[in-house]
């Protein structure tokens, strides 16, 4: 079973990542295809995400899932709060019966760097440069670490966006990264969500298999 990561964050909240290596039939035995998806791999990602929901909570009511105008899936009765993310051959899910949650998974690549001016402020760029230079001096890391940091910041903001779930968010204006604590392959970002009244948020992150996983529980 390609469950490559799982964490019980608290008594009511669970997080997991699935490496998609199965054919559709594997998932369809347990998970219905709730909407028409023509692209085969996107269909696999969709099925894997919903399969994971039932792996974390076997009573998760898949049949009740609705999709908001913002494309965020949700349960009308909020029996569970959940967030799903797909990237390449991975699906990530976080589910809670109590807490508001968000998650994102990204492949580390140059893609985020090419659009960094669209989602990072000048202060956030200075923060990345400071972390990169400190790590390079301490551990002689190569430039790949810089790419990881840019991808991490994109993933942090994606997780915040999904946690909010109501759309109409400016990634530079409303989603602010104040500090990032780096420890081996783990990260904790101190952030501020500034749409409406400002709210401090901690975003956790993990680097594994050239992927970045981020999540929020509030």
What is the SS-derived class?
alpha+beta
**Which range best describes the helical content: under 10%, 10-25%, 25-40%, 40-55%, 55-70% or over 70%?**
25-40%
In one word, what is the shape?
A: globular
Average pLDDT, to the nearest integer? Answer: 91
Order of helices and strands: EEHHEEEEEHHHHEEEE
Oligomer: single chain
Number of helices: 6
Write down how many β-strands occur, each being a DSSP E stretch of 2 or more residues. 11
Strand content bin? 25-35%
Give the CA-CA distance, first to last residue: 30 Å
- Sheet with most strands: 5 strands, antiparallel
General description of the model:
With 218 residues, this protein is α+β, with helices and mostly antiparallel strands. The chain contains six helices and eleven strands. It has helices at 24-28, 40-56, 111-114, 116-119, 122-139, 144-164; strands spanning 3-10, 13-19, 66-67, 73-74, 81-87, 90-96, 101-107, 175-183, 186-193, 199-208, 211-217. The strands form three sheets. It has a five-stranded antiparallel sheet with strand order 7-11-10-9-8. Strand 1 and strand 2 (13-19) form a beta hairpin. The chain starts with a strand and ends with a strand. 36% of the residues are buried. The model has no long low-confidence stretch (mean pLDDT 91).
